[in-house]
Design brief:
By secondary structure, this protein is an alpha/beta fold. The protein folds into four domains: 5-132, NusA, N-terminal domain (N Utilization Substance Protein A, Chain:P, domain 4), CATH 3.30.1480; 136-199, Beta Barrel (OB fold (Dihydrolipoamide Acetyltransferase, E2P)); 202-277, GMP Synthetase, Chain A, domain 3, CATH 3.30.300; 281-358, GMP Synthetase, Chain A, domain 3 (2-Layer Sandwich), CATH 3.30.300.20. 42% of the residues lie in helices and 27% in strands. The strands form four sheets. It has a five-stranded mixed β-barrel. Strands 1, 2, 3 and 4 form a four-stranded mixed sheet that branches. A three-stranded mixed sheet has the order 10-11-12, with helices on both faces. A hairpin with a 4-residue loop joins strand 6 and strand 7. The longest helix is centred in the first third of the chain and has 33 residues, at 101-133. The radius of gyration is 40 Å and the shape is elongated.
Length: 384
């Protein structure tokens, strides 16, 4: 079997876009592996492809030594000079042990076929990886394949994704074959090949669902400024409009709540609060605490604020186990201290009382100086 080495090499290089040195190294490794399986194969050998001469060689390598301790890797000077007259001690001698043309042609054809298949698989895997890398931060639709421990394995056709336990939503139950939307967090290259790290709990999933469902967000008329999520329980999303004629909250809710209900259904009835974003920090904080009503907001630091609410609104503002205020703080980026109006009045009264007590207990500095002067004068008179 005759193989035109040069033409085959150029064909693979052109079709698969493989660098010449990488392709040559791969072919030589495949040739050597095939040669090693022959019963007559020598041990210390290499494969070499010479494209200029359009030939393949199998070369046995020996170090020329004065004393031969290992015949496999060493050769005496006398024997070396039978192969090369100018051989010297310390040099590496390469002896051509290439099999006959028919056998070498069979090996070469097999090597080219193996490398072609290998490089095709690698190219396909690289192409798929780049394709999914470009989709990081997007929502993918897949099919639940199976469970591995607590991890959920999702099929996307040629590749699989994993939803780890910490990226799943409490209460969601999935069966094999179920259609599922997930957020692509990261594409990883591991020992088992490419792996897609997916999430159902990521706030980005909510962002993507709003983009898919609400045209005004997709075209940029309405912008999502911030999202705070406790997956499976509640999400707060702050939006604003770039067009004064478009109500951002109304656009997200939709006619008769149709748009938001579609998103809530996709999230298995997770509660969603749509908040109107404001550049005014106080107004934004008050909106974020919705559905609670806020009496006032006092900025107490660069990223902290005290919020006063009516007595009847305190528990609603704080929320179950502090969820409402916790999400509002995350949404706005402010540390929030919430007080009822009664608590605030009591605190103000207590502060005033404390200040008054401190003031009455303080002796004026002029009185202290006068007393000290009188005591000093009296002591000097007695000594006189």
């Amino acid at each position: 079997m005759q193989v035109n080495i040069k033409d085959s090499f150029k064909l693979i290089q052109r079709e698969k876009g493989i660098a010449p040195d990488v392709l040559q190294e791969s072919l030589e490794a495949a040739l050597l592996a095939a040669y090693k399986k022959m019963p007559t194969a020598r041990e210390n050998t290499i494969a070499r492809i010479d494209l200029d001469r359009n030939e393949i060689q199998i070369l046995e390598r020996h170090q020329i030594s004065e004393h031969v301790d290992n015949p496999v890797s060493q050769i005496s000077l006398e024997e070396a000079r039978q192969h090369r007259s100018d051989a010297e001690i310390g040099q590496i001698l390469e002896i051509d042990v290439t099999p006959g043309p028919s056998e070498m042609g069979r090996l070469a054809a097999g090597a080219f076929r193996q490398v072609l298949q290998q490089k095709t698989r690698e190219a396909e895997r690289k192409n798929i990886m780049e394709q999914y890398k470009a989709k990081e931060g997007e929502t993918l639709i897949g099919q639940v394949q199976r469970k591995e421990g607590r991890n959920l394995i999702v099929s996307f056709g040629k590749v699989e994704g994993v939803v780890p336990a910490n990226e799943q939503v409490p209460g969601e139950q999935w069966k094999t074959g179920d259609r599922i939307k997930v957020y692509l967090v990261e594409v990883r290259e591991g020992a088992r090949g490419m792996q897609l790290l997916c999430s159902r709990a990521h706030a980005g999933l909510v962002h993507e669902l709003f983009e898919l469902e609400i045209p005004e967000i997709l075209d940029g008329t309405v912008q999502i400024e911030s999202i705070a999520r406790e997956a499976g329980y509640r999400t707060k999303i702050a939006v604003r409009s770039r067009d004064k004629g478009v109500d951002p909250v109304g656009a997200c809710v939709g006619a008769r709540g149709g748009r938001i209900q579609s998103i809530v259904g996709e999230l298995f009835n997770e509660k969603i609060d749509i908040i109107r974003w404001s550049e005014n920090a106080g107004e934004c904080i008050a909106n974020a605490l919705s559905p609670a009503k806020v009496s006032s907001v006092q900025l107490t630091g660069e990223r902290s604020a005290k919020v006063i609410v009516p007595d009847s609104q305190l528990s609603l503002a704080i929320g179950r186990e502090g969820q409402n205020v916790r999400l509002a703080a995350k949404l706005t980026g402010f540390k929030l201290d919430i007080k009822s109006e009664t608590q605030n009045r009591e605190l103000i009264a207590l502060t005033r009382t404390a200040k008054s007590t401190v003031a009455s207990a303080t002796v004026p500095a002029s009185g202290i100086d006068s007393n000290l002067s009188q005591e000093t004068s009296s002591s000097e008179s007695q000594r006189s």
